[in-house]
Amino acid sequence: MKRTTLRAAGVSALAAVAFGIAAPAASAATSAPVRTVSVVQTADVQQSTGSLSLSTAGVTTVPSVGGPSNGEASEAGASNAVKAAWEAIKRAGLAKKAWEAAKKGATGFMDWVNGLSNWNPVKWVIKALPGVAVQELITYILHNYTG
Protein backbone atom coordinates (compact mmCIF):
# COMPACT_ATOMS: atom_id res chain seq x y z
CA MET A 1 0.00 0.00 0.00
CA LYS A 2 1.11 3.49 -0.69
CA ARG A 3 1.73 5.96 2.06
CA THR A 4 -1.08 8.24 0.86
CA THR A 5 -3.60 5.38 0.93
CA LEU A 6 -2.70 4.57 4.50
CA ARG A 7 -2.86 8.24 5.43
CA ALA A 8 -6.34 8.59 3.87
CA ALA A 9 -7.59 5.50 5.73
CA GLY A 10 -6.20 6.84 9.00
CA VAL A 11 -7.80 10.25 8.51
CA SER A 12 -11.15 8.63 7.67
CA ALA A 13 -11.04 6.44 10.78
CA LEU A 14 -10.05 9.44 12.89
CA ALA A 15 -12.94 11.48 11.47
CA ALA A 16 -15.41 8.68 12.21
CA VAL A 17 -14.19 8.43 15.81
CA ALA A 18 -14.24 12.22 16.21
CA PHE A 19 -17.85 12.39 15.06
CA GLY A 20 -18.77 9.60 17.46
CA ILE A 21 -19.85 7.09 14.86
CA ALA A 22 -17.11 4.50 15.26
CA ALA A 23 -17.08 4.64 19.06
CA PRO A 24 -20.20 2.46 19.47
CA ALA A 25 -18.72 -0.08 17.07
CA ALA A 26 -15.44 -0.07 18.99
CA SER A 27 -17.23 -0.83 22.25
CA ALA A 28 -19.58 -3.45 20.80
CA ALA A 29 -18.17 -6.09 23.15
CA THR A 30 -19.88 -4.54 26.17
CA SER A 31 -22.84 -6.45 27.52
CA ALA A 32 -26.37 -5.21 26.99
CA PRO A 33 -28.35 -4.09 30.05
CA VAL A 34 -30.66 -6.67 31.54
CA ARG A 35 -34.35 -5.99 30.91
CA THR A 36 -37.28 -7.66 32.55
CA VAL A 37 -39.82 -9.46 30.40
CA SER A 38 -43.29 -10.54 31.42
CA VAL A 39 -44.30 -13.99 30.26
CA VAL A 40 -47.97 -14.94 30.26
CA GLN A 41 -48.44 -18.57 31.25
CA THR A 42 -52.20 -19.07 30.82
CA ALA A 43 -54.95 -17.77 28.62
CA ASP A 44 -58.70 -18.44 28.78
CA VAL A 45 -60.65 -18.52 25.54
CA GLN A 46 -64.41 -18.09 25.58
CA GLN A 47 -65.90 -19.81 22.54
CA SER A 48 -69.37 -18.24 22.69
CA THR A 49 -68.32 -14.56 22.58
CA GLY A 50 -65.13 -15.12 20.60
CA SER A 51 -63.04 -13.14 23.06
CA LEU A 52 -59.70 -13.92 24.65
CA SER A 53 -58.89 -13.05 28.24
CA LEU A 54 -55.49 -13.37 29.83
CA SER A 55 -55.20 -14.24 33.49
CA THR A 56 -52.80 -12.09 35.46
CA ALA A 57 -52.26 -14.81 38.04
CA GLY A 58 -49.91 -16.64 35.71
CA VAL A 59 -47.59 -13.73 34.88
CA THR A 60 -43.95 -14.28 35.70
CA THR A 61 -41.23 -11.66 35.47
CA VAL A 62 -37.83 -12.93 34.35
CA PRO A 63 -34.67 -11.13 33.27
CA SER A 64 -34.03 -11.17 29.54
CA VAL A 65 -30.84 -12.85 28.43
CA GLY A 66 -30.86 -11.38 24.92
CA GLY A 67 -30.15 -7.88 23.81
CA PRO A 68 -32.73 -5.15 23.48
CA SER A 69 -35.80 -5.96 21.43
CA ASN A 70 -37.59 -3.80 18.87
CA GLY A 71 -34.42 -1.75 18.38
CA GLU A 72 -34.67 0.09 21.70
CA ALA A 73 -30.97 0.67 22.28
CA SER A 74 -30.01 0.63 18.61
CA GLU A 75 -32.53 3.40 17.85
CA ALA A 76 -30.90 5.67 20.42
CA GLY A 77 -27.46 4.87 19.04
CA ALA A 78 -28.57 5.36 15.47
CA SER A 79 -30.23 8.67 16.20
CA ASN A 80 -27.02 9.94 17.81
CA ALA A 81 -25.05 8.80 14.77
CA VAL A 82 -27.59 10.41 12.45
CA LYS A 83 -27.40 13.71 14.33
CA ALA A 84 -23.58 13.58 14.25
CA ALA A 85 -23.62 12.90 10.51
CA TRP A 86 -26.05 15.79 9.94
CA GLU A 87 -23.81 18.11 11.96
CA ALA A 88 -20.82 17.02 9.85
CA ILE A 89 -22.80 17.75 6.67
CA LYS A 90 -23.76 21.20 7.95
CA ARG A 91 -20.19 22.02 9.05
CA ALA A 92 -18.90 21.10 5.60
CA GLY A 93 -21.43 23.46 4.00
CA LEU A 94 -23.18 20.64 2.15
CA ALA A 95 -26.61 20.93 3.79
CA LYS A 96 -28.46 22.23 0.73
CA LYS A 97 -26.89 19.68 -1.61
CA ALA A 98 -27.64 16.89 0.88
CA TRP A 99 -31.26 18.04 1.10
CA GLU A 100 -31.58 18.10 -2.69
CA ALA A 101 -30.11 14.58 -2.86
CA ALA A 102 -32.35 13.35 -0.02
CA LYS A 103 -35.42 14.47 -1.98
CA LYS A 104 -34.42 11.92 -4.65
CA GLY A 105 -34.60 9.03 -2.18
CA ALA A 106 -32.02 6.56 -0.93
CA THR A 107 -30.55 5.81 -4.36
CA GLY A 108 -30.18 9.47 -5.27
CA PHE A 109 -28.70 10.27 -1.87
CA MET A 110 -26.15 7.46 -2.09
CA ASP A 111 -25.26 8.53 -5.65
CA TRP A 112 -24.57 12.01 -4.25
CA VAL A 113 -22.47 10.56 -1.43
CA ASN A 114 -20.50 8.40 -3.87
CA GLY A 115 -19.93 11.49 -6.01
CA LEU A 116 -18.19 13.29 -3.16
CA SER A 117 -14.41 13.38 -3.18
CA ASN A 118 -12.60 10.56 -1.44
CA TRP A 119 -10.85 13.22 0.62
CA ASN A 120 -14.14 14.58 1.92
CA PRO A 121 -14.69 13.33 5.51
CA VAL A 122 -18.47 13.71 5.12
CA LYS A 123 -18.43 10.91 2.55
CA TRP A 124 -16.79 8.52 4.99
CA VAL A 125 -18.97 9.57 7.90
CA ILE A 126 -22.08 8.72 5.86
CA LYS A 127 -20.57 5.50 4.49
CA ALA A 128 -19.76 4.40 8.06
CA LEU A 129 -23.47 4.50 8.92
CA PRO A 130 -25.39 1.22 8.80
CA GLY A 131 -28.09 0.93 6.11
CA VAL A 132 -30.99 1.72 8.44
CA ALA A 133 -29.21 4.79 9.78
CA VAL A 134 -28.76 6.09 6.22
CA GLN A 135 -32.54 5.92 5.77
CA GLU A 136 -32.96 7.71 9.11
CA LEU A 137 -30.46 10.36 7.99
CA ILE A 138 -32.44 10.96 4.79
CA THR A 139 -35.65 11.34 6.80
CA TYR A 140 -33.88 13.56 9.32
CA ILE A 141 -32.55 15.82 6.56
CA LEU A 142 -35.97 16.11 4.90
CA HIS A 143 -37.63 17.06 8.20
CA ASN A 144 -34.94 19.30 9.71
CA TYR A 145 -33.43 21.26 6.80
CA THR A 146 -34.69 24.83 6.86
CA GLY A 147 -32.44 26.31 4.18
Shape: globular
How is the main sheet built?
A: 2 strands, antiparallel
Write the H/E string, N to C: HHEEEEHHHHH
Tell me the span between the first and last alpha carbons. Answer: 42 Å
- Report low-confidence residues grouped into runs of 5 or more: 39-43, 58-75
Number of strands: 4
**Helix coverage percent of residues?**
55-70%
Helix tally?
7
The class by helix and strand makeup works out as alpha+beta
Tell me the fraction of residues in β-strands, as a range.
5-15%
What is the overall pLDDT average?
Answer: 73
Compute the CA-based radius of gyration.
22 Å
Strand order of the largest sheet: 1-4
What characteristics describe this protein?
147 residues, alpha+beta, two-stranded antiparallel sheet, globular
Describe the structure.
This protein is α+β, with helices and mostly antiparallel strands and 147 residues long. It is 55% helix and 12% strand. The protein is built from seven helices and four strands. Strand 2 and strand 3 form a beta hairpin. It is globular, with a radius of gyration of 22 Å. The two termini are 42 Å apart.
